[in-house]
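Cross-posted from the bioinformatics board.
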Amino acid sequence: MSVNAKDSVGIVTPAKFHHPQTFTLQNGDELQGFELVYETYGELNATATNAVLVCHALSGHHHAAGYHADTDSKPGWWDNCIGPGKAMDTNKLFIVSVNNLGGCHGSTGPESVDPATREAFGAEFPQVVVKDWVASQALLADHLNIKHFLAVIGGSLGGMQALQWSIDFPDRVRHVVLIATAPKLTAQNIAFNEIARQAITSDPEYRKGRYRLENTNPDHGLMLARMIGHVTYLSDDGMAARFGRELKSGDIDKDEDVEFQVESYLHHQGRAFTQRFDANTYLLMTRALDYFDPARDTNDNLVATLRNTRARFLVMSFSSDWRFSPERSKEIVDALIAAGKDVAATVIESEHGHDSFLLPISRYTEALSAYLNHAVMHTAEPER
Amino acid sequence: MRPDLELVAKLIQPNSRVLDLGCGAGDLLQHLQQQKSVIGYGLDKDAENIQLCLSRGVNVIEQDLDGGLGNFQDDAFDMVIMTDTIQAVHQPQLLLREMLRVGRECVVTFPNFGHWRCRLNLAATGRMPVSKHLPHRWYDTPNIHLCTFNDFEALCAELKMAILQRRVVDQRHNEHSLINLAPNLLGSYGFYHLGRTP
């Protein structure tokens, strides 16, 4: 992978969308305008029928493909799938990738200044939910003159946004691709999020969310939160294959302090995360995950919730993913079938757990590619 | 399209809801989607087939038929189709019952193990027959539940299913009146349209 690779979108520059009007959130709170940072890859065609929205997951952001500079060591988080000739083919598609409201990579969020108090929102930033994200993304689409998206695509929490798009804007999305996601979290899943949140808020440096103002950071709590999350994104078999019981340092037989490879890996992942992620955003995003439950408005009847959708769906899951297991995807598929909607579904064999959706697994990328190719070739097909 | 699939397609009403068990590369469903505007879904477990379906815009669902159809509601479909697949499932009798639970009617097609060539082959060589419709050898065949037309009809009676229509073709997928003199001997491929008994 490199900036000059034929299948790379190369150097990309983020853009900013400023929404000046008051934006009312689902919980009734108001934002006095907001900014969304986003990137685009490929060209919007003359009829604006080739736009694809990519929604990011818990720790993601707008930088999904390409490089910000020649010196970047790694490309965007979904570079495996986005580029010329890749599954999301930028020769054919115009891809929009946005950092969600409440994020910590340039969009309005806890690190932004609250115009009312003139200091950073911190923990006072209002709780945004998936529905708010979708509403703000729709305003960005208006700004970009995109009347409807050919597809809205996301994995995990990103898949929840894509599903919400089909429900809230049935006429503005032709295809919805749901990857390693769920119609709502289980108790076990919420429990993992709560442990992560407790790790952060019980760190003395959290300072009730005012850590920025007090020139500190809950590094330790954020690191623990990431370590817990990370374990749930991998699978037992995958970890065994990658780390086994290999030691990084020390010798058990000589009664020395030892560090297993897996420990070293988790420490590194946790520490690196504190450099690139804001604790208040992490709290906010995990709550948005927990609260997502679109069927709640229809007495927990997902079929009824999906009845007014008009998109075609592709639902993909991974065999070893236990955080968002194939069974959870199946719930969405079965409900879509019961509602009489067009849906295709695959379960991709993989040992990499939930993280699979970010990896270059050939059957996965080929399936996505085949589906999108058909979609882009039949943009003019009449709707049901 | 395979001749047996054309026979099936003729039975499908426009705009109806269809489930195709073991849909393969999606030939039948694509035809039905384009020609009859059906809302159709195909189940398959083969990665190559699924990939082909996706590239053609067919609603394919990766699902193993041996896991049953418990995820579908009663009467969810107008027609449930299973072509050339029943001989490869673990519990044909349970699956048939499920087909007529989730669908009001169903169509089943399968090769006739009672065809005279099979019988002659077995009688003459003393070994399991290998033919155009049944090209596998006994140890590598996916066809673990082969049956004759008579066997199948006996099972339908046992399960109290109504045979609404039966059509029998020869090896070249042609229908002719001669076959109907002794279908279980002369027919190589059977096509059954089944319904619930009142």
